[in-house]
Amino acid sequence: PTSFIVFKAKVYTEPPFIADLITFRSVINMIHLLLIVVLGCLTRVDSFSSLSQTPGSIAAETLVQPPQQFRSVDDLAAALHLKSDQTLQIESSVKLSKGLIQNKLRIYNNGVPIRNFILQAISFKNGTFNGAVSGWLPPPVGYINSTISKSEDELATITANIANNYSSGRSDVEIACAADLTNHTCIKQIDINTTTGKAALVYFVRATLSTNQLIRFPRGIVDAVTGNVITSSAAISRRKDHNYGGKSCDIIGDIVNIVSKETTCCPELKGGNLKCPGPNYGPKKKQICLNATYKDGYVILANKNVEVYTLDNQVDLRQGKIVKFKPEDGPNDEINGASSPAADVWYYVNQIFDFMIESNVTFPHTPVRAYVHFADKFENSFSDGTNMVFGDGDTFLYPLSAADVVAHEFAHIFVNATRVSNFRDESIGSLESYCDIFAKSFSAYLNPDGKVSDWTLGTCVTKQDNTTLRTFDDPTRGGFFKDNLTDLGNSFFYKGLGIFDRAFYCIVQEENVPINDAFKAFTNAVLLFWSESTGFLDNACGVYRAASNLQLNATSFFNCFRNVGIDLHFCSLVRTQ
Ligand SMILES: [Zn+2]
Predict the structure, then answer these.
(1) Are residues 149 and 131 in the same domain?
(2) 436 CA distance to ligand 1 middle (Å)
(3) In this prediction, does ipTM exceed 0.90?
(4) For residue 539, is it within any domain?
(5) In what residue span(s) does the Peptidase M4 C-terminal domain sit (predicted)?
(6) For residue 348, how far is its CA from the centre of ligand 1 (angstroms)?
(7) pLDDT one-digit tens code per residue, 186-211
(8) Is residue 204 part of a domain?
(9) Residue 351, Cβ neighbours under 10 Å: how many?
């Protein structure tokens, strides 16, 4: 069986592996994976809802408006009628024009953060809030004993069991133990049931499980009192059956500690693959300088932004070694039609940092780690929220080191740092789409004229002609994705990534909003308006409000969301001053 979907321009055949997964359990979803697109409903949703519909929630702007001013978050909290055991904290901030700053605010109940119900408030440089607020306040939280806790061991067992529950009855899936988990994260939170408005103390747990046959991403919301799993998901990706012999490779040195006396240089080597050759790297005028770190006669693909590791066909990220080579030898990692996946990933991630600086977006969590040559003939790429991992492809794909694929995976790390998590189905559709939008905007940035050259993604990694992974202008091409909320129904919400992809196309191509402006509106929405499990409606509302705050033509955004079945009449624009 194959583990991918390739979209032909006209013909689409359902891959057997996808059908296999769906049959065995309809609740498996694929998170973070660019190519594998399988998703199940966590809960059956009969209509799309906004946080505004939660019983007892209140729109913040009905309590506070400009020109009221507040000298501190505590003063603002009091004006919003937060209880004495609740505090408001700034979680992130973005500069707007005219010296204004837009802040994302999180409500804490006895020191425990409340999921989902975030607020936005605008402040001056001196920290005074100008009364412009938005977002929905949660219903009153009754008494919650937040000192109750579960040990990390207990939560690790629960997390491993989540993974096992999603693969029960499968003889080909190894049983996971707590000790197998990597990147295990447990965050104590208060979860508000959006149907009843009731609050509960929970843990949000997530981890990566990487074994020889599978990669799994279990995650769940666990009741802190009973230990019951309230809701969960577990993405599964299959590796190819293969003997992991490991090829001999003399270019890889030990992990280096970069200290002093290092410089940068432009090693001469080829990038790209047979379908999309280039860039041509080197020191000459018409070549692109890789700006690699150079020390003691070795080129090292590590700097303050990114560290590129090679896994040399292994699957355990801990076995990764920083790519290091003598300039005269080159990285020597040509495979499956690509000249040097390591050099390409290095180049594109560094370019992404330049792109983000130019777009005025800060990314604090550096250096990021990028792993190339993951497993053997792995036809996919993924991010576990912290690392980017790229396979070498095989029959259907070239190595997944193309500019837009790298940018898509990078975007997952960026999004993860904002605490917006791919969890509820609708947020998966929204976030996958944001990663597509990030990738498309980055591709445009790489073009000399800064404009979009075509509205596809992943075209350089597919081997067949006329195949691609995304089509923004018509996401439904290929028959898998939906591009209108009214068509989505109860189908797998991953299919919904076409909704925002299509809206983005409309905003840029049909409404003529410059792509970087549209990108900034979506990015500010992710940073300030989207929260853990917000769905299509609230996320579109966030983009609309972010666009308005950036002084963009908000009507263009309103119209394009209407075209994809999202009516934003419930989402009022709030004055910024
Ligand atoms: Zn993705």
Answers:
(1) no
(2) 8
(3) yes
(4) yes
(5) 426-566
(6) 17
(7) 999 999 998 999 999 999 998 888 76
(8) yes
(9) 18
